[in-house]
Amino acid sequence: MNKDRAYHHQSLSEWIHRKNSSHYSPIAPSYQPALLKIEMEGLKHDMQITSGASSCGQRKTKNISPDTPLRDRALCNFEYVLNYNPRRIPAALTEVKCSCLRPSPSLRGRYAVECEPLRYQVRVLLFDDMCNTYSEQIETIALACIPVLQASASSNGEPLEMQPIEADIPMI
Fold first, then answer.
1. Which of these, 21, 117, 127, 139, has the minimum number of CB atoms within 10 Å of its CB?
2. pLDDT at residue 80 is higher than 70
């Protein structure tokens, strides 16, 4: 029985740490060119994985088609950044950083819109300095950069009124 348990622990550890040509992290962008920089330079914390979306106020491409990558169609420009901690499982998490405070003026319309990160909480295992013990922790990472109405603002200076939407509350 202990042999089976050790095998399961080893299998789980190998699965968690597995890296291959398409996934260096359990949360990885589907934007494949991002992987090239990691392959060339290795894993480093706060490393900017992509570039080119940082020019605020400009459209990246004139023609948008269904084949245009989501990153190039986004209203809020963003870059993928690596959140890396070798004492954490998973060690590598990909997150985004908003490149601009606001979408391009030509895309905003009449509302005061700004770009904000959409954050998620992820459970991780964090080892102590000697890697002898670990504890479960919660880390907050940004998975998207989304356009939102600016708090307490409108195009004509009056506060915006939000309309409530009726929704069933899930029972747990």
1. 21
2. yes
